[in-house]
Protein backbone atom coordinates (compact mmCIF):
# COMPACT_ATOMS: atom_id res chain seq x y z
CA UNK A 1 0.00 0.00 0.00
CA UNK A 2 1.38 3.44 -0.79
CA UNK A 3 0.34 7.06 -0.68
CA UNK A 4 2.02 10.00 -2.34
CA UNK A 5 1.71 13.72 -2.71
CA UNK A 6 3.35 15.73 -5.46
CA UNK A 7 3.60 19.04 -7.22
CA UNK A 8 5.58 20.19 -10.22
CA UNK A 9 8.89 20.16 -8.31
CA UNK A 10 8.60 17.45 -5.69
CA UNK A 11 7.06 14.11 -4.81
CA UNK A 12 6.81 12.47 -1.38
CA UNK A 13 5.75 8.86 -0.98
CA UNK A 14 5.17 6.54 1.96
CA UNK A 15 4.95 2.77 1.40
CA UNK A 16 3.70 0.06 3.75
CA UNK A 17 4.57 -3.58 3.03
CA UNK A 18 3.01 -6.49 4.88
CA UNK A 19 4.27 -10.05 4.53
CA UNK A 20 2.31 -12.67 6.43
CA UNK A 21 3.75 -15.58 8.37
CA UNK A 22 5.72 -18.10 6.35
CA UNK A 23 6.51 -21.76 6.92
CA UNK A 24 10.11 -22.90 6.38
CA UNK A 25 9.52 -26.65 6.47
CA UNK A 26 7.03 -28.78 4.55
CA UNK A 27 5.49 -30.08 7.80
CA UNK A 28 4.88 -26.45 8.96
CA UNK A 29 6.84 -27.03 12.18
CA UNK A 30 8.78 -23.74 11.88
CA UNK A 31 6.99 -20.46 11.30
CA UNK A 32 8.55 -17.10 10.49
CA UNK A 33 6.52 -14.19 11.87
CA UNK A 34 4.65 -11.59 9.83
CA UNK A 35 6.60 -8.51 8.72
CA UNK A 36 5.44 -4.87 8.72
CA UNK A 37 7.80 -2.50 6.87
CA UNK A 38 7.37 1.24 6.34
CA UNK A 39 9.48 3.16 3.77
CA UNK A 40 9.52 6.85 2.90
CA UNK A 41 11.05 8.78 0.01
CA UNK A 42 11.16 12.34 -1.28
CA UNK A 43 12.19 13.53 -4.75
CA UNK A 44 12.87 17.18 -5.54
CA UNK A 45 13.43 18.34 -9.12
CA UNK A 46 14.99 21.68 -10.03
CA UNK A 47 16.14 22.48 -13.56
CA UNK A 48 17.83 19.27 -14.73
CA UNK A 49 18.76 18.05 -11.26
CA UNK A 50 16.87 15.38 -9.31
CA UNK A 51 17.53 15.05 -5.57
CA UNK A 52 16.15 11.94 -3.90
CA UNK A 53 16.21 10.82 -0.26
CA UNK A 54 15.04 7.34 0.71
CA UNK A 55 14.44 6.17 4.27
CA UNK A 56 13.87 2.41 4.47
CA UNK A 57 12.47 0.46 7.42
CA UNK A 58 11.39 3.64 9.20
CA UNK A 59 10.12 1.70 12.23
CA UNK A 60 13.51 -0.05 12.59
CA UNK A 61 11.97 -3.55 12.55
CA UNK A 62 14.14 -6.63 13.02
CA UNK A 63 13.12 -9.06 10.28
CA UNK A 64 14.35 -11.75 7.93
CA UNK A 65 12.93 -12.90 4.60
CA UNK A 66 14.89 -16.16 4.93
CA UNK A 67 15.61 -17.63 8.37
CA UNK A 68 19.07 -16.73 9.77
CA UNK A 69 19.64 -13.99 7.13
CA UNK A 70 18.59 -10.71 8.80
CA UNK A 71 17.67 -7.72 6.67
CA UNK A 72 19.03 -4.21 7.31
CA UNK A 73 17.55 -2.10 10.06
CA UNK A 74 16.64 1.54 9.39
CA UNK A 75 18.79 2.86 6.56
CA UNK A 76 18.90 5.86 4.27
CA UNK A 77 20.22 6.73 0.85
CA UNK A 78 20.67 9.92 -1.12
CA UNK A 79 20.70 10.05 -4.90
CA UNK A 80 21.53 13.06 -7.09
CA UNK A 81 20.89 12.79 -10.82
CA UNK A 82 21.57 15.19 -13.67
CA UNK A 83 19.33 14.74 -16.72
CA UNK A 84 20.96 15.29 -20.11
CA UNK A 85 18.54 16.37 -22.84
SSE map:
Layout: E1 2-6, E2 10-19, E3 22-23, E4 31-32, E5 35-46, E6 49-56, E7 64-66, E8 69-70, E9 75-82
Antiparallel strand pairs: 1-2, 2-5, 3-4, 5-6, 6-9, 7-8
Provide structural commentary.
There is one protein chain. This protein has 85 residues and is mainly beta. 0% of the residues lie in helices and 61% in strands. The chain has no helices and 9 strands. It has strands at 2-6, 10-19, 22-23, 31-32, 35-46, 49-56, 64-66, 69-70, 75-82. The strands form 3 sheets. A 5-stranded antiparallel β-sheet has the order 1-2-5-6-9, with no helix packed on it. The chain has a two-stranded antiparallel sheet with strand order 3-4. The protein has a two-stranded antiparallel sheet with strand order 7-8.
Helix content: under 10%
Mean residue pLDDT: 94
For the report, how would you describe the main beta sheet?
5 strands, antiparallel
The spatial strand order of the largest sheet comes to 1-2-5-6-9
What best-fitting shape do the alpha-carbon axes yield? elongated
> What would you report as the Rg, rounded to the nearest angstrom?
17 Å
- Order of helix and strand elements from N to C terminus: EEEEEEEEE
Supply the number of helical segments: 0
What is the β-strand count? 9
Q: What would you call the structural class?
A: mainly beta
Q: Give the terminus-to-terminus CA distance.
A: 34 Å
The fraction of residues assigned to DSSP E strands is: over 45%
Unreliable spans: none
